[in-house]
From TrEMBL:
Span of domain Flagellar hook protein FlgE/F/G-like D1: 95-157
Residues in Flagellar hook protein FlgE D2 domain copies: 177-286
Domain Flagellar basal-body/hook protein C-terminal: 360-405
Protein name from the UniProt record: Flagellar hook protein FlgE
UniProt keywords, alphabetically: Bacterial flagellum, Cell projection, Cilium, Flagellum
GO BP: any one term: bacterial-type flagellum-dependent swarming motility
Length: 407
């Protein structure tokens, strides 16, 4: 039987496989996170007709003479180039800009994906369209430990968070050195107790005999008056107190009941210059009880919850994984990939660290299929198939001629 017949058959098979791969690429041109596949051909074994000959004194060397036995599919490589961004405006849609894969858990199997079209299920879990749970780290009191084991990302809307009692108030501004004697300046800031109840803390600044003092009161209890001292440059120098971290600060510890856990009132921003009175309480760190109303995803993967009291707090962080050889991953369907012995172990980390990409919320990564290239590949595969078909028909003609020799 003619070798050309079997070479033609192998060519048909290889170009049919190329056509299959190309057709699949085109079918997934609009699939979120899809990565194009690329075929690589290699020749098969060659039959030795004559081996190489070494040069001799009386005759030169000869090259080997071999007849190829066809072609085979050597590899189908996955091309992990960045796909274009498609803005969706949905806060649960996330795109990776750079290297890395989302980590998901599907039926107790850890899989990986570039498709960030996520949703929340009835239990508040962040999931893929097929229900695989997106993995990351939950936050404890707004702090994420990225060294902890991975877990499901949960963000149940309406979750109630406990109130935070005020333990720090920051005051800044000017107490005029040219104020009428006597003078009183009153300011009020809303603070919160351990139950989340609002407590108006009144600050009364008194100017007498060229000196300023301050009294703090919550309507029931008070501390003061406490004398304020200023240096030659007009910056406040006293009084001082020790805050909860053990640091000494300029200000007053408001603890009328001597519980040891009062409100540290930071007065380091006060001055005494000639001019207008601009003293104001700038901030306090307490908050009432609140419910989770919305969220956003930062470039570093942190899910920041927005609560009904206006406060924002990190509630979780998405994890990413990368591999030494991403093309070694096995496609598992549903835009998911599975670890293999040739991909290397997953290197897990937070977005933006260790060579991992950052995240873009409100967008998804589209397919990286190049239609112009795929249409060209279609033509190449078709012509290759036709040429190998011609080889088979020609070989058949030769065999027919051999049969006809008997006539």
């Amino acid at each position: 039987m003619l070798r050309s017949l079997f070479s033609g058959i192998s060519g048909l098979r290889a170009h049919q496989q190329m056509l299959d791969v190309t057709s699949n690429n085109i079918a997934n041109v609009n699939t979120v996170g899809y990565k194009a596949a690329q075929t690589v051909f290699a020749d098969t074994l060659s039959q030795m007709m004559r081996s190489a000959g070494a040069p001799q004194p009386e005759i030169g060397g000869t090259n080997p003479a071999q007849v190829g036995l066809g072609v085979r599919l050597a590899a189908i490589n996955t091309v992990f180039t960045q796909g274009s961004a498609q803005t969706t405006g949905r806060p649960t849609d996330v795109m990776i800009s750079g290297d890395g894969f989302f980590i998901v858990n599907s039926t107790n199997e850890q899989l990986y994906s570039r498709a960030g079209a996520f949703n929340f299920d009835a239990e508040g879990k962040l999931v893929t369209p097929t229900g695989a749970a997106v993995q990351g780290w939950p936050a404890v009191n707004g702090v994420v430990n990225s060294n902890a084991p991975l877990g499901d990302i949960r963000l149940p809307m309406g979750t109630l968070i406990a109130p935070t009692a005020t333990d720090t108030v920051v005051v800044s501004g000017n107490l005029p050195a040219n104020a009428p004697d006597p003078s009183t300046i009153t300011r009020v800031i809303k603070t919160y107790d351990v139950t989340g109840a609002a407590v108006n803390l009144t600050q009364s600044y008194q100017y007498t005999g060229g000196n300023w003092s301050v009294t703090f009161s919550d309507g029931t209890n008070s501390v003061g008056p406490t004398a304020l001292t200023f240096g030659p440059n007009g910056q406040i120098t006293g009084p001082t107190f020790t805050d909860k971290s053990g640091a000494t600060k300029v200000g007053v510890l408001y603890d009328p009941l001597s519980t040891g856990s009062g409100i540290g009132i930071d007065l380091a921003g006060l001055t005494m210059y000639t001019g207008n009175a601009t003293v104001q309480p700038l901030s306090q760190n307490g908050a009432p009880a609140a419910t989770l109303q919305s969220f956003s995803i930062n470039p570093d993967g942190q899910l920041v919850g927005v609560f009904s009291n206006g406060n924002k707090q990190t509630v979780a962080q998405l994890a990413l994984a990368n591999f030494n050889n991403p093309p070694g991953l096995e496609k598992a369907g549903d835009s998911l990939y599975r670890f293999t012995v040739n991909s290397g172990l997953a290197q897990v980390g937070a977005p933006g660290t260790g060579g991992l990409g950052t995240l873009q919320s409100g967008a998804v990564e589209m397919s990286n299929v190049d239609l112009a290239q795929e249409f060209t590949n279609l033509i190449v595969a078709q012509r290759g198939f036709q040429a190998n078909s011609k080889v088979i028909s020609t070989s058949d003609d030769v065999l027919q001629e051999l049969v006809n020799l008997k006539r």
